[in-house]
User: What shape does this take?
Amino acid sequence: MVEFSLLMLPFFILMFGIAEVGLVTWGSLELENATDDAARLVRTGQAQAQNYDNARLKQAVCARVSLLFDCQNKLRIDLQSFPTFSGMTAPAPLDGAGNLKQDFAFEMGSGEEVVLMSTFYEWPLQLLGSLSLSNMPNGHRLLRASAAFRNEPFPDN
Assistant: This one.
């Protein structure tokens, strides 16, 4: 019984750690795929033609994820247009205190402009992962996905 109790603690720590890493990886992959799908709406001009705003583009991303709980409130989208790919700069998602910013740019660009779409989701670590998986001061994990593309030559509205 003593040997069992000594071995079970490391075993359960290992099992919970594996589960946490698996969930974070799954959530990150879902966010990547959803960001690519939503970026396609911007790249082809569908979002511009239908007058998408930040909330509607967020709905398009959140409709394609299942694991990101409370996606509508926790997801942040940064959408910037640039003259060239070399002039592109990635946004800084955290403020000076290490918290996720609440306001980001939203510029879908016109036809043939270069656009960078970045999505951010603050993943609350539930199990033992906050010991080593967190990359924010509050013990959460910031998931980030980006898509860089040139808009197709669609007519401007």
User: Anything to note?
Assistant: Strands lie at 75-82, 114-123, 141-150. The two ends are 74 Å apart (CA to CA). The helical segments are 2-43, 46-49, 54-62, 71-74.
